[in-house]
Amino acid sequence: MLRAVTCASRRGLARGLAAFAGGAACSLLAREERGAQCLSVLSAAPKGAPKDAPVTKGAGTDALASRYVLHEVLGRGRFGVVHRGTLKATGEQVAIKILPKSSSAAAAPLLDEAELMRALFWHPHVVNLLDSFETAESLVLVMDLCSGGELFDRVVAMGSYTEADASEVMRYVMSAIAHCHSRGVAHRDLKPENIMLASQDTAVDVRICDFGLAQHIEPGKPLRGKVGTVGYAAPEMLRGDPPTYSPRVDEYAVGVILFILLGGYHPFDPDCAADDETITRRVKRGQWGFHDDSWKSISESAKGLLRKLLAADPKDRISAADALEHPWLRGDAASDKPLLKSAARLAEYNEARGAWREATRAAINREGLSTADRRSALAAAFRLIDANGDGQICRKELTVFLNRVEARASPAEIDKMLSQGDIDGDGLISEAEFIAMNL
After folding, report:
1. What is the pLDDT of residues 35-69, one digit of tens each?
2. Phi, psi at residue 99, to the nearest 5°?
3. Orientation of helix 395-404 relative to helix 411-421, angle to 10°
4. What's the rounded Cα separation, in Å, for the pair 323 and 231?
5. Could you tell me if 103 and 80 are in contact, meaning their C-beta atoms sit under 8 angstroms apart?
6. One domain, residues 354 and 415
7. How far apart are CA 181 and CA 178, in angstroms?
8. Which of these three, 120, 144, 168, is where a domain ends?
9. What span, in angstroms and rounded, lies between the C-alpha atoms of 87 and 95?
């Protein structure tokens, strides 16, 4: 749900922050709670891949052990766990998601997600469900293994990039969305965290993942529900109770991601200072523009495509299929000049997200990290939050940082988080308090 914000954790500041159901904190916690599905991204399927995802019904208790070798845990949540696995018949590395049948609260959503993923099988830039079956004790989903990390992390690691680089990446993303829509599926939660790399060997082999909020498209019927993340939600998703909209909300989200990639900042929060109410108002009004100096080096073709993707009226918004024919996405009009300023801004933007991700992992996923690793991750996050370097986190610094990582909070929620972390009662959080409350 959009910003169904609570801060129920008693385990410290980072856990409290991670409890947000939206923004960066939402995506991080959601991946933990759903067994880290976003760790599951495809390697290319072999030529002649079947049209329909394999399904095995009533496979029996021995199906898992007879087909796969289980290795280390990749992610663990309240309801299930994801392992790295090996398909015995071929040696292929896969991700295996196991949900105990006793977790009835999660069974229905998982089965719905699996059904949607079967409908999408097969596309080179979409997460594919390779196998699904049940044993006497568990529901099992098998997907290809992701080893390449998030798109923005890889782009930043490149040091600099060009419009041509961005065009190639976004062409693959757009082809994935066009495929989803052609198969009758709307993703509804596209954001940087859900665009992953297939392996460490390539910077462009991207896959969209996490179909937990996806919905079937029924001809003649609108999509419904307040879902996703405010910063990537189309205007029509923020109106009505419940809002109704078309699959074009996915193209809008791609537009926001492309804007960040080319400009290095969020179109509706350029200064990382806006709360959800402000962003919602700006989105509804279509209040964005190419104001920063970095846009002077961006081609008019790229800007033209962004205007079509970020059109406030969905009737004016370009479809994924049509966008693939746009000269900029075809690569015909994309500049090969390095976007140095945009790359620097994106690195700054992504640094906070990375520290936040590691701090959240340290606070939640305790089994997979040593105390030293967790302490290091939390200390790194503290230093980024402590903008003036005085060794204390104040209310303003916490607010600004949460905006930077798109995990915005109300004043009351900020006060609650500060009180949870402030052991000595001085109204500030020291590095020792920050770490102690999360170890």
Report:
1. 333 323 223 333 334 445 665 544 555 789 999 99
2. -120, 115
3. 110
4. 22
5. yes
6. yes
7. 5
8. 144
9. 10
Percent pLDDT > 90 in the chain is 39
Strands 129-134 and 138-144: antiparallel
User: Do 80 and 197 fall within a single domain?
Assistant: no
Same domain for 265 and 413? yes
**Mean per-residue pLDDT of the chain:** 80
Q: Is 188 helix (H, G, I), strand (E, B) or coil?
A: coil
* R_g (Cα) of the chain, nearest Å: 21
Contacts of 229 (CB under 8 A, 6+ apart): 2, 22, 23, 26, 27, 189, 191, 406
- Identity of residue 332: D
**Highest-confidence range of 80-89, 169-178, 234-243, by mean pLDDT?**
169-178
Highest mean pLDDT among 90-104, 311-325, 374-388 belongs to 311-325
Tokens in use for 157?
């690691």
237 lies in the same domain as 360 = yes
pTM tops 0.85? no
Q: Which residues of 142-160 are buried (b: 16+ CB within 10 A; e: fewer)?
A: bbbbbbbebbbbbbbeeee
Amino acid at 114: A
Return the structure tokens found at 127: 């997460």
Residue 57 vs residues 60, 96, 100, 104, 140: alpha-carbon distances, Å: 9, 17, 16, 19, 11
Coil vs helix vs strand at 214:
coil
Contact between 178 and 322 (Cβ < 8 Å): no
Of 383, 392, 309, 375, whose CA–CA distance to 352 is shortest?
383
Q: What is the CATH number of the domain that holds 193?
A: 1.10.510.10
Region for residue 152 given its phi and psi (left: phi exceeds 0; alpha: psi -120 to 50; beta: otherwise): alpha
pLDDT in tens, 338-361: 898 888 888 877 776 666 666 665
Q: Binding residue per annotation — 88?
A: no
- Please give the positions annotated as active site: 189
The reply to whether 218 and 232 lie within a common domain is yes
Last residue of a domain, one of 113, 144, 175: 144
> How many C-beta atoms lie closer than 10 Å to residue 319's C-beta?
18
